[in-house]
Amino acid sequence: MTRDNIIKALDKFPTPLYVFEAEKLTDRVDYLKKSLPSGVSLCYAVKANTFVVKELIGHVDRFEICSPGEAYICDAQAVPRAEMVISGVYKDPHFIEELFAKGEKVGHFTAESKEQFELIRFLSEKYKIKTKLLLRLSSGNQFGMDNSVLCEIIKNRSEYEYLDICGVQYFSGTQKTSIKKLRREIRQLDNLITKLRSDFDYDCRELEIGPGFPACYFPEDEFDEDELLRGFSEALNEMENRPKISLELGRSIAASCGSFLTRIVDKKTNCCENYAIVDGGIHQLVYFGQMMAMKKPYHSLYPERQGEPTPYNICGALCTTADILVKQLPLICPEIGDAIIFENTGAYSVTEGISLFLSRDLPTVVILEKDGKFTCVREAMPTHPINNSNYGG
Ligand SMILES: Cc1ncc(COP(=O)(O)O)c(C=O)c1O
Fold first, then answer.
1. Ligand 1 center to residue 210 CA distance, Å?
2. Cα(247) to centroid(ligand 1), Å
3. If we measure between CA atoms, which residue out of 260, 325, 262, 361 comes closest to residue 15?
């Protein structure tokens, strides 16, 4: 975030505060599109950040939705039904039926098991809606279905009048930096498509892959992203049977647009260690790959001061010794009231924290619009009514 925008945000909103920059987000999508082979479409995994869905409409081609809550959010933001991919390891039958009953056709469903397949088949027949389906192939965990189950469904596809089984979905993990691993996966998927053609005369028209492209949170973990995307693009171009490719991305799209602003509310030295207590904490700021608060994330301190840096343990507002955001972070003359700005926090962090612990408020969330104006999309929200036996009573 620029210094000017930090000043404006701190002036206008209380901390702890998330700011998501709309322009950075869409610039990021443009960069990814430019770096990938033409014709490859982007599907935003909504779980990465539900607050920026609106900003992405018209920039990405699809939205992957894994829960009723995510679907309601996308509906509220007017994501076109045709761009929705209804996915997820648990598909609540009532909710899925709700989608069919509305009659407005959803873009795609995924099936992660024979059970889910049967549910979608049943509903497509009940409501007589021709339904596009992607079969999720497992990567060896609870997600997706085994190769043998997938093949069986494809073999019998002519029996399913209202299903258009248009292809395969595959996701095997996040924060992948190994081009070798990515290449190997593309080769395996290519082989699968060949086999489906030769064994079942099946034309796999779509491949929706979650490549788990990484985001960089710590300077020590920097990698050459251009090279990674070049290698991945080459792997796609080398496919023998390349269907329409859609990349399901969360972290890689959303991480760089976000900043978390938290103020120092207390400062002390205990047993020769410096501590800065901030109004945020581990319930609000989560970094993938952080190790016992040892790694120092991209950050800045406002206001900036002159002098020698001194190491501070940055601790949050929860009453637990676990609430350490960063250990031994070098800061120059920090004062109570100063803000620490943690960067690249646009993906997952805002919803991943243990937000109900200690009944602290949820942080304020604002969008920094392209015209430079801030829009508050969630005011600081108290959690004490939820953690209360009178809740709902
Ligand atoms: C099926 C699926 N697709 C895409 C994603 C997004 O992953 P990432 O944020 O690494 O891009 C996830 C994340 O859990 C996922 O489960």
1. 6
2. 10
3. 262
